[in-house]
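Practice problem 4.
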């Protein structure tokens, strides 16, 4: 499956590929648009129409922070940057819109929210247009596939809206305010669950379990069932029970009922027997590290349920490649962004192994194997280079100072660099067309098993929860557990899903955002390593001495503000605490 960078059907067509039969394509449309009539009868145009649903569901690894004034809303943020596992190494990014969001700036958050709202509803409008015009499609197989995709993506975009805004506007048909200025009320939490699940089930009943090679990467029956399970899983959180407003959560307590339905949905997913954890056969620390890293470099593997399909040639200028490896590279590899630097907070989430106790003056020995796979620490080997993240007799190591002469070049402020997701074979340069190609995993089986473990534990089935946790630990050659508590499940989740999007949404789902996303209660930590007269000292301290002022999350941020123009037009209530800016 290929995702192109143009939009078809009643929208601006920017492609130069559509050169045949141009008179037919544009017969009843303005010169810069494609005929609506032709779109529904042209298989190529229909595929491109669907591609917009895929392309807009997630930016994948296509992240960037604009630092020029007035362009902040164009930034594409990596959601874990807003958590406590990973941060950035460039001061100009921290002084831009990204830093404003960290500080809780209402104007910047409102602009970000408006962009998300507009994007999601634009895609929903396109999907509703498909449903209203699908009777005009003559290719029966393509129509069937597109119908399944349409149900999935409408549910998926409403799921994104629900997470970010709470009860939203449930619209299942095309709205033209110029012809019919109808208004839509905010949906309740129950209505959101019901709508998402209904569409997800409709998608699951149509979509195949797997595709032939040409269509690998399209949404499947498994992705639809995962979406159904995720909807119930989100709704089951205690954070969303007993709310005064029904669009902020249930007005009573539906947690147990949602947990039961979530359990059933995950079991439907598992019953497909379509996914399995990628096995790790090596038994050495380096071998396990290398095999675990490959999980995230293998496109559409047997563990993957849903991925963003990045271009295989890494073309980020004309297609949908990205620059992850370039932006993550340490200065020793000519990196100047250093945009993915794990925090010491996160490194402390990895267990010890082989019965060892943690030693603050020897912190990198006998750790969970995933530590070595995910983290580049002082002395570790990457690309044949020994990471130099310490200061010797006052002289900073190569990876503790910027590369080149740029005043904005970054380097780690935490004492670590990220290894997870990265491709050691990727050339690090300034090529203005080609860079990285690895896919961005949205959902994989390990996450489904962790979700299921939590659901089962909350329902009183600790034995099943324990089995799920041990499946994941066994894969990575970590000791299995004899018993399990909720904290064990959540800790395993933080390690296995490190730097993946679910870790960000867990703060909201678990109701821990106020505690974990504030510098006053959970300041980001760094490690400084100094060598003096041959003696090495490890010192942990706060990354930012003004963390309480520079990292602020307020209660109202559990839900972003709905665009004020929408609030006024629809006559609906705004989410609590937001002012018009």
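Answer key:
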């Amino acid at each position: 499956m290929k995702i192109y960078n143009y939009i078809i059907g009643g929208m601006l067509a920017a492609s130069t590929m559509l050169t045949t039969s141009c008179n037919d394509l544009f017969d009843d449309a303005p010169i810069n648009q494609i005929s609506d009539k032709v779109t529904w009868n042209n298989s190529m145009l229909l595929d491109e129409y669907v591609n917009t649903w895929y392309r807009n569901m997630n930016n994948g690894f296509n992240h960037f922070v604009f630092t020029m004034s007035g362009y902040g809303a164009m930034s594409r943020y990596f959601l874990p940057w807003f958590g406590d596992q990973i941060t950035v190494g460039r001061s100009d990014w921290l002084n831009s819109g990204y830093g404003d969001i960290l500080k809780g700036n209402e104007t910047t958050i409102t602009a970000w929210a408006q962009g998300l709202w507009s994007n999601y509803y634009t895609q929903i409008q396109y999907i509703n247009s498909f449903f209203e015009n699908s009777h005009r499609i003559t290719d029966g197989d393509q129509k069937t596939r597109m119908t399944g995709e349409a149900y999935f993506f409408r549910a998926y975009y409403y799921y994104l809206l629900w997470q970010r805004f709470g009860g939203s506007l449930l619209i299942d048909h095309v709205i033209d305010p110029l012809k019919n200025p109808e208004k839509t009320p905010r949906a309740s939490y129950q209505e959101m669950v019901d709508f998402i699940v209904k569409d997800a089930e409709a998608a699951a009943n149509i979509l195949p379990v797997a595709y032939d090679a040409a269509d690998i990467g399209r949404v499947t029956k498994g992705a639809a069932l995962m979406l159904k399970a995720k909807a119930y899983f989100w709704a089951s959180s205690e954070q969303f029970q007993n709310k005064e407003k029904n669009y902020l959560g249930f007005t009573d307590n539906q947690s147990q009922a949602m947990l039961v339905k979530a359990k059933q949905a995950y079991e439907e997913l598992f019953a497909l027997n379509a996914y399995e954890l990628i096995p790790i056969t090596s038994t050495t620390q380096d071998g396990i590290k290398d095999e675990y890293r490959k999980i995230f470099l293998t496109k559409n593997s047997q563990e993957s349920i849903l991925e963003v399909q990045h271009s295989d040639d890494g073309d980020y200028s004309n297609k949908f490649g990205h620059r992850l490896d370039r932006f993550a590279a340490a200065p020793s590899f000519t990196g100047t962004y250093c945009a993915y630097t794990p925090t010491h907070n996160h490194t402390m989430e990895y267990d010890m192994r082989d019965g060892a106790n943690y030693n603050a003056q020897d912190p990198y020995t006998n750790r969970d194997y995933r530590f070595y796979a995910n983290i580049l620490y002082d002395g570790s080997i990457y690309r044949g280079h020994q990471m130099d993240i310490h200061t010797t007799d006052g002289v900073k190591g190569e990876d503790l100072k910027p590369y080149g002469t740029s005043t904005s070049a970054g380097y780690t402020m935490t004492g670590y660099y990220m290894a997870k997701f990265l491709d050691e074979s990727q050339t690090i340069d300034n090529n203005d067309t080609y860079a990285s190609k690895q896919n961005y995993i949205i959902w994989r089986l390990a996450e489904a098993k962790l979700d299921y473990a939590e659901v089962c534990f909350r329902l009183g089935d600790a034995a099943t929860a324990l089995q799920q946790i041990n499946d994941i630990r066994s894969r990575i050659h970590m000791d299995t557990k004899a018993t399990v508590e909720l904290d064990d499940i959540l800790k395993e989740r933080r390690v296995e899903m490190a730097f993946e999007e679910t870790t960000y949404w867990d703060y909201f789902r678990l109701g821990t955002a106020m505690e974990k996303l504030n510098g006053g209660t959970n300041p980001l930590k760094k490690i400084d390593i100094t060598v003096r007269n041959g003696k090495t000292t490890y010192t942990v301290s706060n990354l930012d001495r003004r963390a309480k002022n520079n990292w602020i999350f307020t209660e109202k941020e559990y839900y972003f503000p709905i665009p004020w123009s929408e609030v006024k037009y629809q006559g609906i209530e705004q989410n609590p605490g937001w002012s018009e800016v």
